[in-house]
Design brief:
This protein folds into 3 domains: about 160 residues, GAF domain (Beta-Lactamase, 2-Layer Sandwich); about 150 residues, 2-Layer Sandwich (Alpha-Beta Plaits), CATH 3.30.70; about 210 residues, EAL domain (TIM Barrel, Alpha-Beta Barrel). It is about 45% helix and about 20% strand. The termini are far apart. It is of the alpha/beta class. The chain contains 23 helices and 20 strands. The structure holds ligand C2E and calcium ion (2 copies). The site of one calcium ion (CA) has 4 residues, from strand 17. It comes from Novosphingobium rhizovicinum. This is Bifunctional diguanylate cyclase/phosphodiesterase.
Length: about 600
């Protein structure tokens, strides 16, 4: 009475079942609720959601049964799954085939099962009720069972889709990318593919759009981007939504990297020409070749993302490079570790480097410089970690940490405000913080400090990032009475006309112009002389950084430079060391020292 099913359709059915990753998962109330309803409708003690695995019926949900599974052989649910049609057995004893089944021998007399069918038509198993007395099933009971089975399928598909399709873009997620890649690796192991990572904008840019235009606008940008990418890829290829403004897809098999990158460039240009939104001018694309089955899905994505990061610095499309991937990996590691450092008082500290008034040799201030000692990797140079965190939203917390520590120290030193000022470095991102000034003022107030006691250093490039906004912010800051300094002067490309509008009182000439200056005359000397003269004409006080030799200090004093900072005067020091140094520092100008 049983028709054999073909090996092929059974393999496809099993594959569909396995894809859903339901087997051997824990019980869940959303299924148990439906099973209880089935048992109540029939007034029978036993009901189950029973899935047909290769050799067993496994119960995702059950009432009145102790077992988690029974053998598939002669199980009525297996027949329901194979035929994808309901089945009623009114009396097991009257059915020669089922009388000999495991259920039949255990005393089951009645069975009704409705198939669990996927959208593609695969029977996964049955929703079934069992009784120990023979009985019939009315058509309304059977109709209810079929409805409940459909509810079970909805639940299964809902749970499966959760986290697999992005609710905003409507395309598959990173989880799905992982699974699809695993499937491909099974079917086409050893084939070369290219993973393409499309980065529409940095997270910071996205959150800025969200702040300014609202998150509905961001969603719209994402949807438009999705549509553009789908148009480029065509209906047969999948675009995956990896995170807020990041997408990924795979090249057609055997694509040659350089030719494919040309194609991507052309596609990008055409998207730009047809798009209504501005984001497309910021797109960065990373391409990562890999062999199916040899690289884990997450590594494939990370590699492509790292290439996209490189693309930001080149012309929009970049190929994966191992060395820059390692660098990005380290940066990423540092970023995470720095987050913990902010919460761990033992890792971060400030050191202080004296600033010397050249005409008198007195120390009239210091620059607070951040130091980070990681418990495992040891000291990390600010030259390495500051540029990394400055790119992220962590810039705010980092600056706040420095601000608090610097003000605490200043308050502890109790130096007369007219004799000593402490400078703190700000990042470009800080200029976008609406409450920065309020936080500074609050910090000063809490500690009874005066605004003149603190100075903020900003590089030219930090100001030039968003000149109008920066200028407005800096004007407000200057109005509170704190001093502003333009750091690393000479390394940026800002015009003097612009710098003149910046309400800074100080320019700090970058070390590169200072370090090698040992004698008057020569090109370096002329350059420095011009910079100092120009800065003075514009009304700035001039500080030379990176003074390593006495000769340099003397020349600077002769050129009329106001202040100097550098190893020759004093290296950055721990607070106690700095106090001790200051107490016995000579207070003589470099020229007197040489006499
Ligand atoms: P910067 O603001 O230009 O700081 C001066 C840097 O030059 C410091 O390096 C200092 O140790 C070094 N230096 C001072 N005198 C000499 C000298 O005579 N010769 C030489 N070769 N170097 C000298 P450091 O402490 O490694 O800091 C590097 C950069 O990291 C800083 O450059 C600044 O841009 C950034 N940074 C440090 N601390 C902070 C901070 O708290 N916040 C922010 N946003 N940036 C910071
Ligand atoms: Ca500085
Ligand atoms: Ca500097």
């Amino acid at each position: 009475m049983r028709e054999p099913i073909s090996d092929f359709s059974e393999a496809a059915r099993l594959d569909a079942l396995q894809q859903l990753k339901l087997l051997d998962t824990s019980p869940s109330e959303s299924f148990d609720r439906i099973t209880r309803m089935a048992s109540q409708i029939f007034g029978l003690p036993i009901a189950a959601v029973s899935l047909t695995d290769s050799d067993r019926q496994w119960f995702k949900s059950r009432v009145g049964v102790a077992h988690q599974s029974i053998p598939r052989d002669k199980a009525p649910c297996a027949h329901v799954a194979e035929s994808a049609a309901p089945l009623i057995i009114e009396d097991f004893q009257a059915d020669a085939y089922y009388a000999e089944s495991v259920l039949g021998r255990a005393g089951t007399r009645f069975y009704a099962g409705a198939p669990l069918i996927t959208r593609e038509g695969y029977g996964l198993g049955a929703l079934c009720v069992l009784g120990t007395e023979p009985r019939k099933a009315s058509s309304s009971e059977l109709a209810a069972l079929v409805d409940l089975a459909a509810m079970v399928m909805n639940q299964i598909e809902l749970e499966h889709a959760f986290g697999r399709v992005d609710p905003v873009s409507g395309v598959p997620t990173r989880n799905q990318f992982r699974d699809d890649l695993a499937d491909l690796a099974r079917d086409q192991a050893g084939e070369q593919y290219l993973a393409v990572f499309v980065d529409l904008a940095r997270d910071e840019q996205i959150s800025r759009i969200a702040r300014v235009m609202g998150s509905a606008q961001v969603d719209e940008v994402v949807r438009e981007a999705t549509r553009s990418l789908q148009k480029v890829l065509g209906p047969d290829r999948t675009v995956y939504h990896i995170s807020s403004a990041q997408f990924a897809f795979l090249s057609p098999p055997k694509a040659e990297p350089f030719a494919y990158m040309q194609e991507l460039r052309a596609a990008l240009t055409s998207i730009r020409q047809t798009s209504s939104v501005r984001f497309v001018t910021n797109v960065a694309i990373g391409v990562r070749p890999f062999i199916l089955g040899e690289v884990a899905a997450d590594d494939v994505l990370r590699g492509a993302a790292s290439a996209a990061q490189d693309a930001r610095e080149s012309d929009g499309v970049a190929l994966y490079s191992l060395s820059s991937d390692l660098a990005h990996k380290r940066q990423y590691g540092l970023l995470n570790a720095f987050g913990s450092a902010l919460d761990d008082d033992s890792q971060l500290r400030l050191v202080f480097q004296p600033r010397i008034e050249l005409s008198t040799g007195r120390c009239i201030g210091a620059e607070a410089l951040l130091r980070w000692r990681h418990p495992e990797i040891g000291d990390v140079s600010p030259g390495e970690f500051i540029p990394v965190i400055e790119q992220t939203s962590m810039a705010r917390a980092a600056t706040q940490w420095v601000l608090d520590a610097a003000m605490d120290q200043l308050a502890a030193w109790r130096l007369p405000p007219e004799e000593f000022a402490l400078s703190v470095n700000l990042s470009a991102a800080n200029l976008a913080e609406d409450d920065l000034i309020a936080r500074i003022q609050l910090g000063l107030l809490k500690r009874g400090l005066r605004p003149e006691q603190i100075e903020f250093e900003l590089t030219e490039s930090a100001i030039m990032g968003e000149p109008d906004r920066a200028l407005a912010m800096l004007r407000e800051m200057a109005a509170t009475g704190v001093c502003l300094a333009i750091d690393d002067f000479g390394t940026g490309h800002s015009s003097l006309a612009y710098l003149q509008r910046v309400p800074a009182r100080v320019v700090k000439i970058d070390q590169t112009f200072v370090r090698n200056l040992t004698e008057p005359g020569g090109a370096d000397f002329v350059l420095l002389e011009t910079m100092i003269g120009l800065a003075h004409k514009l009304g700035f006080r001039v500080v030379a950084e990176g003074v390593e030799m006495q000769e340099t200090a003397i020349i600077l004093a002769q050129l009329g430079c106001d202040e100097a900072q550098g190893f020759w005067f004093g290296r950055p020091m721990e607070p106690e060391q700095f106090s001790a140094w200051r107490a016995c520092s000579s207070g003589v100008s470099p020229m007197q020292a040489s006499a």
